Structures are given as structure tokens and as C-alpha cells.
Amino acid sequence: MHKRIWWILALLIAVAGVVLAAVVIRTHRQVVTQQPRISVADKSNRQKMTIKQKDAFIRKISGPAVKNFRQNRRVLPSVVIAQAILESQFGSSALYRLAKNPFGVKGRYHGQSMSFETREVENGHSVKVMAAFRKYPNYQSAIMDHNRLLHDKFVRRSNLLSYRTTTRLLQENGYATDPHYAHKLNHLIVKYRLSRYDLEALNEN
Fold first, then answer.
1. Coil, strand, or helix at residue 205?
2. What is the DSSP letter of 37?
């Protein structure tokens, strides 16, 4: 008799455990589903950029970019500006607005990051993935961090005066998965005459 009672109690406990686990799993799925998936290229707040707005964005990035190159001769301003244009779509991306990250730099900055949905090229195919991107306190910090990152990990040379060589090194050393990344940067540099900022940095007197 006692054995039967203990067996029934054990069965009831097991059933209760299964039910509780199911409730927890269902609740977790609902929470995950309800979390917004923010895209790096989020277009919800994006409007067609005017020439005036594009020029203002270029000036905003060019100042610190020129100053950095004059101080350390690491990355040409034209490349810095072109990357900011391409990665943030002239400052209209969610990553730029929410994380002050103009360059699509992944990882953490002093422990700070934000997750966004982005596109990567894998085996020749464009796929959507979730990734953690560095969150900066201000744009100056983002530009300085980007400057160090490019020099130390991707360009690995100082006083490099050819923007085409610089963009090629970014492509070869894996800054982006897009196989046309260097070509896109070169196109932006020519289209918006960004090499004038290289001359400005070199002719500082």
C-alpha cells in the first residue's frame, strides 16, 4: 500500500515538472518573439537625403578624420569618410542613430554593444544575421576607435597615401564580407571628391 502511494506521488511530481517546464519554455519563446529585431539598415526613419544633408554629414566626419591623419598618419580621411557613408547611409542607419557607430564596427567598446540584424555574404549568398555592434558614447570616440582598428588589424601600415591601396587592404584582410567592398568605397571617394580631404590633411600649413 505504501509503495503504491509513493509511486503515485512520484508520478504526480514528474507530471508537475513536465507541465512547469512547458510553461517556462512557452513564456521564454513569447518574450523572444516580442523583442524587436532592429536592422542596421532600418529604413523606418530614413528619408531621401538632400545634397545639403549629405554635405553636412561629410563635413561632420571629415573634421575628426583630417585631424587624426595629421596626428598619426594612419588612415586617409577619404577612406574614413567613404566607409562612414557606405556603412551608415549618410547617417540614416539605426546603428548610427542608436549606437553612434558610423562604420559598422562589431564587438564591444568598453563593454558596450547593441545587437542589430544585418546582412552578410556567406558562400556567395547574402543572408540576414544578428550581430553585436560596438556602442559609442559619441561620434569622436567612434572615429578614433575606427582609426586604431583599421591601422592595427586591417591596413597595418602608416603613412599610406593611396586610398586605392588602403581600400584593397581592407578588402583583402576581411573588414567586410562584401566582395565588392573596395570598389564601392573607391566609387564613393571619386563621386564625392573625398580625396580633397587627403590633400587638406597633407597640406596642413
1. coil
2. -
